[in-house]
Amino acid sequence: MNTKQQTIQKAVSVSGVGLHTGVSATMTFLPAPTNHGYKFQRIDLPGQPIVDADVDNVVDLSRGTTIEQSGARIHTVEHTLAALVGLQLDNVLIQLDGPEPPIMDGSSIQFINALQEAGIEEQNATRNYFEVNEYVHYKNSEKDIELAALPLNDYRLTVMVDYNSRVISSQHAYLNDIGQFPEQIASSRTFVFLHELEALYKQNLIKGGDLTNAIVIVDRDVEDGELDYLADLLHKPKVSVNRREGILNNTQLHYPNEMARHKLLDVVGDLALIGRPIKAQILAARPGHAANVAFAKKIKKLIQKNAANQVPHYDPKQPPVLDINRISQLLPHRYPFQMIDKIIALDENSVVGIKNVTMNEPFFPGHFPGNPVMPGVMQLESMAQTGGILVLSTVPDPENYWPYLIGIENCRFRRNVLPGDTVIFRCEFTSPMKRGIVKMQGRGYVNTNLVCEADMIASLVKKK
């Protein structure tokens, strides 16, 4: 899985009819800055309102996932979002001149193709993964639906479907590498059972549905007269049924388990509404949009529960955003006052730095000999240097500026820092920069324990 955030290199558009609304629309994917996430924009409405792709904005789950914000509604977002997740894109603005993304062929593959044509661009910020750290379970006993998330340092999905149908037996699909989504999952098309079809039309749904964008599964015997009725319903001169396959108009499946694969595609798209890329093993039995969204809400609640004392995750196997050589190019400090070994996260508002504390630090021989403890002022210096990197990141030419610490407030030292500890420092802006002055909050952690914290004021001064 990628460590850096990604967007697309240029704008790209697709056009077509919406599955449920039947309204033609053009959807344009545009590059977006770091930490932007996925946002839809209704450019056909006054003020061109933006709708965040967020599970809290879900307002309807009638055979698709619909979101709404500021009076703007976007129908059937799951296939679009699945394509973005499948390409590990983080920041994209999706403009629409209608109420619903084009259904295209009923899968995500044409969105994938368009996005790949636009090109993918790596951004200078780490992906804000949420690693599921406890068992999360959703169950609907009435419909025999279950979804679960288990801790895993990866993103893997397994889906099982069983419709008690003589046409479709129990099917399984899995994805062990999100990077394989375009090849293994993206071309799996949406489907509907014949017994559902007329009911959906009566509910004023699938106005844009036809045999080019959905698989119709014939799960009962039909007479010739009914085939004529179905042809009229689907605006086709004629339809037929392959009695052996049970697929209307003899549509050829892309995979024997295409239905299970499409349900996995839907799960990927609906879980994108959590708002962050996740690491977990996802298991889903007979999932649907309502269950997917309810499950996504449970995971989002877990994220919020952890946010109060969110310790930055540090994986020493991952390459840093800035190594010691790049840090030395940005900061003026040198031994014995160069305190930060690497930067593992850096975005527009926050930074995470690593300090490996060893017995070879020059202050240990004189600071509590026989009971070595890292001086609080050196912890504060390490935190300030981490914040200095964040302050320098606000200008395009950081080599031409000095970052100065000019104020400290609310400083607390919570636990002793000892040789052998790895201190994770996180600093974030608490106010916008004005005239070169900015406020930050800094915290230091060892083994998930808070060891120090302070509010800092920094000044960015141009070198003469």
Automatic annotation (TrEMBL):
Keywords: Cytoplasm, Hydrolase, Lipid A biosynthesis, Lipid biosynthesis, Lipid metabolism, Lyase, Metal-binding, Zinc. Pfam families: FabA, LpxC. The keyword Transferase does not apply. Its cofactor is Zn(2+). Zn(2+) binds at residues 79, 262, 266. One of its GO terms (molecular function) is UDP-3-O-acyl-N-acetylglucosamine deacetylase activity. One of its GO terms (cellular component) is membrane. It catalyses: a UDP-3-O-[(3R)-3-hydroxyacyl]-N-acetyl-alpha-D-glucosamine + H2O = a UDP-3-O-[(3R)-3-hydroxyacyl]-alpha-D-glucosamine + acetate; a (3R)-hydroxyacyl-[ACP] = a (2E)-enoyl-[ACP] + H2O. InterPro entries: FabA_FabZ (IPR013114), FabZ (IPR010084), HotDog_dom_sf (IPR029069), Ribosomal_Su5_D2-typ_SF (IPR020568), UDP-acyl_GlcNac_deAcase (IPR004463), UDP-acyl_GlcNac_deAcase_C (IPR011334), UDP-acyl_N-AcGlcN_deAcase_N (IPR015870). Pathway: Glycolipid biosynthesis; lipid IV(A) biosynthesis; lipid IV(A) from (3R)-3-hydroxytetradecanoyl-[acyl-carrier-protein] and UDP-N-acetyl-alpha-D-glucosamine: step 2/6. The active site is at 289 (proton donor), 367. It is found in: Cytoplasm. Its EC number is 4.2.1.59, 3.5.1.108. One of its GO terms (biological process) is fatty acid biosynthetic process. CDD domains: FabZ. Belongs to the LpxC family. Catalyzes the hydrolysis of UDP-3-O-myristoyl-N-acetylglucosamine to form UDP-3-O-myristoylglucosamine and acetate, the committed step in lipid A biosynthesis. Involved in unsaturated fatty acids biosynthesis. Catalyzes the dehydration of short chain beta-hydroxyacyl-ACPs and long chain saturated and unsaturated beta-hydroxyacyl-ACPs. This is Multifunctional fusion protein. It comes from Spirosoma aureum. The gene is lpxC.
